[in-house]
Structure formats: C-alpha cells, structure tokens
Amino acid sequence: MPESDPAPPLAVDIDGTLTNRNRAVDPRVFDALREWPAPVVVATGKAAPYPVALCEFVGIPVRVIAENGGVVCFDTEECEEFVVVGDRAGAERVAERYREAGHDLGWGDLDLTNRWRETELAVSRESPLEPLRELAADEGLRVFDTGYAYHVTSPDVDKGEGLKTAADRLGRAPGDFVAIGDSENDAATFRVAGESYAVANADETAKREADYVMESGYAEGFLEALEAVGPK
Ligand SMILES: O=C(O)COP(=O)(O)O
Ligand SMILES: [Mg+2]
C-alpha cells in the first residue's frame, strides 16, 4: 500500500463475515466500515441490490462486487459504472434442466434471491448438490458453495477478477487490498489481494488460501482482522 495510506483499502465479504451466527449484520460493523480510512469494496455472492443497499445504509460510497464477480458496480465521484461480466443464459439452462429432473431452486415462488441477478443463479442448500454440479459441468459452468447457497457461475467469473476491475477504477493495484472473507467464493479475492484474512468460521478452502485465520468467527473475526491491519 502507498506510504501515505493510513490503512489499506478493503475487499469485504458479507455473509459469514459481516454477519453473526444468525445471519444478521452485526451492528458493530456499521461504524467500523464507515470510519475505515481507505476505500471499502463490498465483495459478495449476492445480487447487486443487497450490497448497494448495505453501502447506502452504512453511509459509505457504493463500491460493490456482486454475484461473485459477475457484476461490479461503482457509484462514486471517481466512477459511475455498472459492469456486467458473463451472461445468465447458461445458468438458466442449468436451472431448467435441474427443474426437469424434479428438483427445485428452493426459494419459493417469489425467489428474491435470484430476482435481480444478471449473470448467475443461486440455489438453496436445501436442494441436492450433485445433480446441480453435473448439469453445471455439462454446460461448462461451475458451482460455488458459499455455505449460504450454491451459485451456478461462469468459470471465468470470480470475486478476484471483480477485485481487479474495482481496483482499476480506484487507480489502485489489487495487491494494495486486504481481503476478508469466509468461504470458497472468497478464495479468488484472497489470491489477488495483497493480504487475506479468513474468519474462524471459514470453510477449508478459504482457510487454506488465506494468509491469516482469525481466532474469532463471523463479525467478531472481521473486527479482529481490522484491528490487525488498521491504523495503529
Ligand atoms: O450469497 C451467498 O451465498 C454468500 O454471500 P457472500 O459472498 O456475501 O458470503
Ligand atoms: Mg461469505
């Protein structure tokens, strides 16, 4: 990171990282994110409206990687852009064949999980994984298990590619960033960022790829990571 920075820019996952055990955002992270003295990029598997709203309600500029890198959205002084990488057609084909095989995406008729997705589809972890993996492989796609959902995604899309785009828009290198996350969809961010922190509840892939594994889990672990990299 440049000498002048009091702290590194962050790439922060949401579910399992800013949340607590019962999936609610820990209220302590609001001040921590707002007061961080460098840019914060929220990098999530969720559709863009969720992280955009999080930024709005936290009171930080909208700098978002959504859909595991399928979408990069900036609405700041330095950049106003909504970048869509890949397309959803392949994931739709997988979903159609999955339904034909008698399975269900598992979100009910309303399905707010997928309503605003542009590039991938998410499937409930209550639904069977193996047929989903097989169909995805057949269509040349990949499945991420985030611990919160299965995501059917193009193989060239991940949060690490998203971080390259986001860093570019900030006039930074991806290696300037500190990444914090909890699951296999964060591994690509961990590889691209300069330093990476997995919270204690992280899955094996995230722990393996991270430079450091926190003693605490969930938002407590996130706050522990900030303590480690923040202004002294
Ligand atoms: O939406 C998910 O499945 C996981 O979201 P996350 O990337 O913010 O942890
Ligand atoms: Mg997560």
From TrEMBL:
Pfam families documented for this protein: Hydrolase_3 (PF08282)
Keyword list, A-Z: Carbohydrate metabolism, Hydrolase, Magnesium, Metal-binding
Catalytic activity: 2-phosphoglycolate + H2O = glycolate + phosphate
Keyword Iron-sulfur among record annotations: no
Cofactor(s) required for function per UniProt: Mg(2+)
GO molecular function: magnesium ion binding; phosphoglycolate phosphatase activity
Active site: D13 (nucleophile)
Keyword Chaperone: no
Lineage top rank: taxon: Archaea
Enzyme class: hydrolase
Family, per entry: Belongs to the archaeal SPP-like hydrolase family.
Designated name of the protein: Phosphoglycolate phosphatase
Taxonomic source organism: Halococcus hamelinensis 100A6
Record lineage: Archaea, Methanobacteriati, Methanobacteriota, Stenosarchaea group, Halobacteria
